[in-house]
Amino acid sequence: MANVPYPPFLDLPPRYRNPETARYRILPVPFDGTSTFRKGADRGPSVLLQVSDQLEEYDIETGGEPCRAGIFVEKEVSCGSGPEELAAAVEVRTAGILAAGRVPIILGGEHSVSIGAARAAAAAGDRLTVLQLDAHGDRRQSYQGSGFNHACVMARIAESSPVIQAGIRSMDISELTGLDGDRIFYAHEIHDNQEWIDRLCRLLTKQVYITIDLDVFDPSIMPSTGTPQPGGLGWYQVLKLLRAVSGISEIRGFDIVELCPDGSHASPMLAAKLLYKIIAYIESGTQGILRNI
Ligand SMILES: [Mn+2]
Fold first, then answer.
1. Residues in contact with 166: Cβ distance below 8 Å, sequence separation at least 6, in sequence order
2. Residue 103 CA, ligand 1 centroid: distance in Å
3. I need a labelling partner for 72 at 20 to 30 A (CA). Which of 103, 150, 275, 293 fits?
4. What is the reported pLDDT for 1?
5. Cβ within 8 Å of residue 23, ≥6 positions away
């Protein structure tokens, strides 16, 4: 996949993907170095961008055309090295996007691509919390000899930011060490109620970086991930959460990881639409206005 040019997001016309003015910068990171179950996440960014040409520019829910803010797809991050070197490379690229006053959107690749991005957001941020949507806790201190394995992502991120986890339904007993039970929203506790979104929002700070492992969704609507788990969240559950979060905190950046294309169009389309919905929520102009702390 190296050096293959990526299609523009949503097949936008040049005026909406001008690198000089685009508010959103998509950073493809086609890395699949530490996956342990099913491989293929390196093709995630290209397939997501390919199907995104079927999205409409108009967002019904927010009543606008969020693409007018500009969405530019950057050159991919070179993924020839191990996960630790990759984290450093992603951190540099993400920091550059943030320093330019733009919103970074990192496309994995497997979940270890989030480490560098979240670090850059924490370094550039002001009272920033990292919100993780995921089936897996990913808080092992080390896995298969590496602290930068996809199973350790949140352990590394928690070293630089407070973390909130939601949708979790698979973890190792070692991950309970030092865990704050008020900051983890297990799937079995939240699947049949709405109050958890308010409870989660009360934990947010001024800014947020969101890391979305697509296996947070139920495999019935998102089968194309490397390590699916039953009992996941639904589309509108996730959207309601993200809209509420955007009303409380400024979203400094986000990533969408673990798309593992398997020929179906529905999974990459969900991922592409999710990306655009988050932009729509940011662009709807409500960012942070519900904040009263
Ligand atoms: Mn996961």
1. 131, 132, 133, 134, 184, 185, 190, 196, 200, 216, 233, 241
2. 23
3. 150
4. 46
5. 69, 70, 71, 102, 103
Q: H/E element holding 114? A: helix 114-124
Dist. CA 140–CA 143, nearest whole Å: 7
Q: Which residues pair with 118 in a beta bridge?
A: none
Residue 134 Cα, ligand 1 centroid: separation in angstroms?
Answer: 5
For the segment 18-28, what is each residue's pLDDT rounded down to a tens digit?
Answer: 999 999 999 99
Looking at residue 8, the DSSP 8-state letter turns out to be P
> Which of 112, 108, 116 lies closest to 148 in space, CA to CA?
112
Q: Which of 226, 176, 216 is CA-nearest to residue 43?
A: 226
Q: Which residues of the chain have pLDDT under 70?
A: 1-4, 34-37, 286-293
* pLDDT value of residue 80: 83
Q: Which residues fall within 8 angstroms of residue 114, CB to CB, at 6 or more apart?
A: 106, 108, 153, 157, 211, 255, 257
Dist CA 59 CA 15 (whole Å):
19
From ligand 1's centre to the CA of 130, what distance in Å?
15
- Per the CB < 8 A criterion, the answer to whether 145 and 116 are in contact is no
- Ligand 1 centroid – CA 245 distance (Å): 21
CB 257 within 8 A of CB 109: yes
Amino acid 175 reads E
* Cis ω for the linkage preceding 288 (within 30 of 0): no
Q: Measured in angstroms, how far is the CA atom of residue 169 from the centroid of ligand 1?
A: 9
